[in-house]
């Protein structure tokens, strides 16, 4: 776990930096500098682009991770990487042509509830391509075991760019139209910088030689589009579908609440960057002992870290909603539901990496399709009845069912579970601290209240985790940074 802990720690720092900047943007700058309608519009554009991204990438970012370590010679690696660079164009070009021919029909369909969406449909396509090729170039660097710069670009760069643009709007250097165009430009620039870095790590040598297992590679890429689309769909279908049922301003309220809950996903996002290539390597080498060890230790480490974040969010959420504009307070229940879903995600460790890099990914796709359908149906049933709370509940149910199926499937095929007795200990600690701190508020300013409660929760949680010795990796980090004997 040495390289995992080392790069994961650096990735966690940069990811939290990104989320910290994102928090300022989401909770304060967007809410005060941009109207609710345009905030909701931007959230819709980015969510729709994120849903399209796996399609635009043709699954290449996953395919590079899975197959790169199977090529042993420089020539075969170059031929493989050359294919990976051009493969996304197989879908990018036809989708663009279809969009050009059918623009009016697509625009009318997406703007039935909110007319403002109609003029911005092309922005979704451009952003999706930028996101897709960014992931391709990031995967290019990942297989060289270089994840830190890419993670910085993925989590920090665009948020700094958006922050600068928001201040440009505030000081009237940009109007809202120019701001939206500039936001899309930030994603395009991010992709280009990632390309330059990836090529500096390993310069492409274009080779068009015959590739071994080409049919397997193309089949995997084609099917993993579905897998990636399903995973993204479950995460972003809520904001996309809300546009069809409620006023787009409420999408802004929902986006703020989802952002708060999504902070819990930071450790998983950071550690996943290095877990993915390592998992693929162990699978390709058929190293079952190393794979099981990585599965359980990644699950426990992520659960401990995300458990602390979960506690800080849940215990302080009421005071946080006092600070931001009152109209956003309707998302309180959304925060609870999304937080639970994200905590369960972290508990799975490298489960996704095991499934998508194994020979069983085809079966998982079937489950994923069924769950995507479930998510859509649940949103259709619950949004009209409960609004944004219904959408959050639909997301929680879909993610809960999907994750449970994945855990069961890995158990059946690999005879591994991510849970140990230490998992139960951490769960009891989390429940105890929630019960102790949620209903306890200091009679201070909300910001002082949040800081003081967070400090007390952090001390209590880390002490219990250390005393119970639930994780050797975490205990070593606590001893290292607190200089305990």
From TrEMBL:
InterPro entries: Poly_Biosynth_Transport, Polysacc_synth. Keywords: Cell membrane, Membrane, Transmembrane, Transmembrane helix. It is found in: Cell membrane. Its main location: membrane. Signal peptide: none annotated. It comes from the Bacteria. The chain crosses the membrane at residues 12-32, 38-60, 80-102, 122-144, 156-173, 179-197, 217-235, 247-266, 300-324, 330-348, 360-382, 388-405, 417-438, 450-470. It is a multi-pass membrane protein. GO terms for cellular component: plasma membrane. This is O-antigen/teichoic acid export membrane protein. The lineage of its organism: Bacteria, Pseudomonadati, Bacteroidota, Flavobacteriia, Flavobacteriales.
